[in-house]
Write a structure and sequence with these properties.
globular, 26 strands, 6-stranded mixed beta sheet, GMP Synthetase, Chain A, domain 3, alpha/beta, 22% helix
Amino acid sequence: MTVATNGPATPGAEVAGLGNRLVVAGAALTWRELAEPALPSPGAVLAYGSADALAAARHHATYGTELLLTSAGRVDRAMRDELRGAGFTVTELAAGEARAVAPERERPAEPGRLWLLTSGSTGRPKRVGHTLDSLTTVRGGQPERTWLCPYAPGTYAWWQVVTLSLTQPGQHLVVVDPDELDDWPALAAAHGVDAVSGTPTFWRRTLHRDGAALARVPLRQLTLGGEPVDQAVLDRLREVFPAARISWIYASSEVGASIVVHDGRAGFPVEWLDRATPGRPTLSVDGEELVVTSPHHGAGLDGPVRTGDRVQVVDGRVLITGRLDSDEINVGGSKVSAGLVRDVLSAHPQVAWARVTGRRAPLLGRMVVAEVVPAAGPAPEEAALVRWCADRLPDHAVPRRVRLLPEIPVKETLKSDV
């Protein structure tokens, strides 16, 4: 039965991080001081702001409600109908005010269940079941940190930062809403942020827009994830923050946080493949696809999971180059990895960002083309970028057209669909 749950706490309701500081929507408070709406269970909460999303997350941690949490902008009418058909009360939560629409059918709530919507990059978003425990992958003692969270509410990356703050004392949180994204370095510096998690596009965009402002943030931990991570962005961040720890993480709603690399290099050592360690994910490759067996998997996804991500082994490192269905370009019968061409372009000193795709061409069927956002200073000429690629790639992989863009494109997910 669908019920509002602000009643007695569940047995696991001792939430260790409730005293941690939060900065959200211009207000400074703690987790404990968040407004507490009455939320139904099972419920799908569509949050219109970060404060509402955090309040829903804390409510779940305290009361064990069955919850699907996402930003309102990610859910269209068809998805709302789908959720109601699956027994969820759909609640729009804005400035602490809740407006609920009853489900099409009543069903018992599943205590402790959290649902995530996948990104939908390969089709319609799917629901993946988790618990607060399966989303909490950092368990050991941590040095005190103030984290910046720029992610859209309810995404796997958002939950990774939120669970860290909820479950670990001393892990404070500064949340950036979309209208604050362009000026986040100033906000971070003002509130003592020393740790930031973001996608490679998020970091490239910040470096491109105002690298000097970024350098004024006293960062000790930088984390990248959500997209392929190339050596160029790691090197550029290292130049700005020579003493910080720079990590990249491979994670998804389906298999959880599965790869964590701290050595400053793109990819992971080939020796990690097929290495079975109790309590840790096992990584393998089938053809060119990454396969993960993870203890942090979503509900019903135990055992080997085909990720749909393409990998290549280069100089002893396993590089994740992109999605299988979009990374490969067939040029006259020869395979080209769009991700590897993108990495070559991104390594050019006058390139801040690049996207590589295939375009129809006579005789060859497809040819390689690229879009590039120039770094600060004189923009590179198309011919110079083509020569740069020709010196580093086989002829069939060299872009035949390069178009310059004025700004790095970014979606609500902080990705640019490279």
